[in-house]
């Protein structure tokens, strides 16, 4: 006699529901515990114009950064590391003067930020104005 083999259906179904539950629980956990940082940027908007003319205004110290990353302080060429010394020398004559940084569009941003940070660290009022004239050659 021949024996018949009972072949049971060998295909096993995997229940995906518990795995999906765990994935959704982990997703909710990571969304709830994530911290979103508020990064601070440099405000490039100029202040609104004043209706009254300033009295006894001090001269502005102009720091220009050209497209070749050359730095000028009141039309005198200097290096980015020596800007603070040049500004301090000029502020000795006019202590309340502010610094205006005028970078070219093609200048390295790192130089602008370095000068900005030096001025802010020393308590010198500073602002940035984009150079639209093409800079100095």
TrEMBL record:
InterPro entries to which the protein is assigned, alphabetical: ExbD
Membrane topology value: Single-pass membrane protein; Single-pass type II membrane protein
Coiled-coil region list: none
Subcellular location: Cell membrane
Residues spanning the membrane: 20-37
One Pfam family hit: ExbD
Keyword list, A-Z: Cell membrane, Membrane, Protein transport, Transmembrane, Transmembrane helix, Transport
Family: Belongs to the ExbD/TolR family.
Entry-linked PANTHER family: BIOPOLYMER TRANSPORT PROTEIN EXBD2 (PTHR30558:SF13), EXBD MEMBRANE COMPONENT OF PMF-DRIVEN MACROMOLECULE IMPORT SYSTEM (PTHR30558)
Protein name (Swiss-Prot/TrEMBL): Biopolymer transporter protein ExbD
Species, as recorded: Glycocaulis albus
Phylogenetic classification of the source organism: Bacteria, Pseudomonadati, Pseudomonadota, Alphaproteobacteria, Maricaulales
């Amino acid at each position: 006699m021949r024996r018949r083999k009972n072949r049971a259906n060998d295909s096993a179904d995997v229940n995906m529901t518990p795995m999906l539950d765990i994935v959704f629980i982990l997703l909710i956990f990571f969304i709830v515990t994530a911290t979103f940082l508020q990064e601070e940027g440099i405000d490039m908007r100029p202040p609104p114009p004043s209706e009254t003319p300033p009295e006894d205004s001090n001269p502005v110290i102009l720091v220009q950064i050209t497209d070749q990353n050359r730095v000028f302080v009141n039309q005198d060429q200097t290096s980015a590391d020596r800007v603070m010394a040049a500004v301090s020398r000029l502020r000795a004559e006019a202590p309340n003067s502010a610094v205006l940084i005028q970078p070219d569009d093609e200048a390295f941003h790192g130089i602008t930020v370095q000068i900005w940070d030096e001025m802010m660290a020393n308590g010198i009022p500073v602002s940035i104005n984009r150079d639209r004239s093409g800079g100095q050659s």
